[in-house]
Amino acid sequence: MPDSLPDSLPDSLPESPASPRLVLASTSPFRRELLARLGLPFHTANPETDETALPGETPEALALRLSEAKARAVAGQFPGALIIGSDQVAVCEGEIFGKPGNHEQAVRQLKKLRGKTVNFFTGLCLLDTRDDQAHVRGIPTLVTFRDLKDAQIEAYLAREPAYNCAGSARSEGLGIALIARLEGSDPNALVGLPLIALCDLLQETGLQVL
């Protein structure tokens, strides 16, 4: 769902020699900001992954596969590291809603989604390159949009042109005004990185957050 953030965050934090390197396989400033909240040292890397769905692949399976694919895409650069991959798919009534890219498509998306519930399904992978084990989780977030009038859609996009956000709404900004209800286990998942599940996976692989 997120698009842009002021680029004021470091690409990495200082490493601790006592723990494996932590790598975020993403160039998203939002995911970087979320991961920085844990106070752990980490690096970032561009996964450069083909995000095309496979024939017959469900949206949920797509998000899970891509989260692991992104982690594995940078694994060769970081031996002995824990690599985080994440991907999000917005789906409503069987249709995937990606990034609109322009005003016309954003208007079309929001008109189709008004009054409906969308599953922003986030795939999360923590790849342990020490043993090549991929720990994968799927976190759904159900977002019910308000029954928006055409004028409200135009007013929103004029103030916040969320053309690079899946579903055409930036929940961490003005887009929250488009939403009537949220249902999910982790509010961070909607922004792109489910920190609650990530903390569980880090602990399972021996990296303590606290």
User: What is the structural class?
Assistant: alpha/beta
Overall pLDDT:
90
Instruction: Count up the helices.
Output: 6
At the first level of CATH, what is the class? Alpha Beta
What string gives the helices and strands in order? EHEHEEHEEHEHH
CATH topology annotation: Maf protein
Give Rg in angstroms. Answer: 17 Å
Biggest β-sheet description: 7 strands, mixed
Low-pLDDT runs of 5+ residues are 3-17
Q: Estimate what percentage of residues fall within beta strands.
A: 15-25%
Form type: elongated
Give the termini distance in whole angstroms: 29 Å
Count of discrete structural domains = 1
- Helix share, percent: 25-40%
Give the second-level CATH assignment, the architecture.
Alpha-Beta Complex
By DSSP, the count of extended strands is 7
Structure description:
The chain is of the alpha/beta class and 210 residues long. The protein has 6 helices and 7 strands; from the N terminus they run βαβαββαββαβαα. Strands 1, 2, 3, 4, 5, 6 and 7 form a 7-stranded mixed β-sheet that branches. The protein has a single domain, classed as Maf protein. The N terminus is likely disordered.
Characteristics of this structure?
alpha/beta, 210 residues, Maf protein, disordered N terminus, 7-stranded mixed beta sheet
